[in-house]
Amino acid sequence: MKSVMLFAASLLAATSAWAGPKVELVTNMGTMQVELNEAAAPATVANFLRYVDDGSYEGSIFHRLIPGFMVQGGGFDTNYQPLPTYSPVVNESNNGLKNVTGSIAMARTQDPNSATRQFYINFNDNHSLNGGRAAGYTVFGQLTLGEEVLEKMAKVPTGMNLTMRARDVPKQDIILQSVRRLDPDAADSGSKTAQAYATAPVATVVKK
C-alpha cells in the first residue's frame, strides 16, 4: 500500500511538472510507460531515445535488481553479453529532477559523464542518488503506467550470476520485448540507420 501511495504521489507530481515524449516498455512481466522530461534533461533524453529509435533495447534484459532500491537494465542481452553503445552522455543530474519512486534515470560508472545505454527505475525514493557537491545520477523521466509491473519485478528472486560475475542478478529473466515512442510528433525524428558504436565500461548504480 505504501509503495502504491508513493507512486501515486510521484505520478501526480510528474504529470503536473511536464509533458514530454512518452515511451512504452513492453516486458515479459507486463507493460510500462514512461514520460520523459526533455526540458530538464535534453542531452539524456536525446541519448535514451537514440537507443529506443535504433531498436537495440528490444531483447535486452534487466540484469540487476535490488529490492527496495532499483531495477537496472538495457545494457545486456539474454546471454548476459554487453550490448554496443554510442558515445557517453554528459551528466545532467543537477536538473532539479529527483530519484523518487517510479522515476527513470541513467546508470553510469564512477565517472559522472560515462552514462551510455543502461538505465534504472527506482523502487523507492533514493535521495542518496541525487548528488550534492558531487554529481548524482541523472533522472530524465517518470513512470506513468505499469506500477503493478514494477512491483512484480521487485519480487523477483536474485542471486550470484557466474557469467556476469555479479550479485543481485534476477534468477528469472526480465526481458524488454519492445520499446517504442508513443509521442506521434516525435515518431519521425529518430534515426533508424546503423551508426558507429563504441564499447564503454559497465555502468552501475551505487547503493549509497
TrEMBL record:
Reaction equation(s) it catalyzes: [protein]-peptidylproline (omega=180) = [protein]-peptidylproline (omega=0)
- Does the keyword Mitochondrion belong to this entry? no
Top-level EC class, please?
isomerase
**Family annotation (InterPro entries):** Cyclophilin-like_dom_sf (IPR029000), Cyclophilin-type_PPIase_CS (IPR020892), Cyclophilin-type_PPIase_dom (IPR002130), E_coli_cyclophilin_A-like (IPR044665)
Q: Where is the signal peptide?
A: 1-19
Q: Which GO terms describe its biological process?
A: protein folding
Q: Does the keyword Signal apply?
A: yes
The record's keywords, sorted A to Z, are: Isomerase, Rotamase, Signal
Q: Pinpoint the PPIase cyclophilin-type domain residues.
A: 27-181
E.C. number: 5.2.1.8
One GO molecular-function annotation for this sequence?
Answer: peptidyl-prolyl cis-trans isomerase activity
Q: Which PANTHER family match?
A: PEPTIDYL-PROLYL CIS-TRANS ISOMERASE CYP38, CHLOROPLASTIC
The entry's function note states: PPIases accelerate the folding of proteins. It catalyzes the cis-trans isomerization of proline imidic peptide bonds in oligopeptides.
Family of the protein in this entry: Belongs to the cyclophilin-type PPIase family.
- What is the protein's given name? Peptidyl-prolyl cis-trans isomerase
Native species: Oceanisphaera profunda
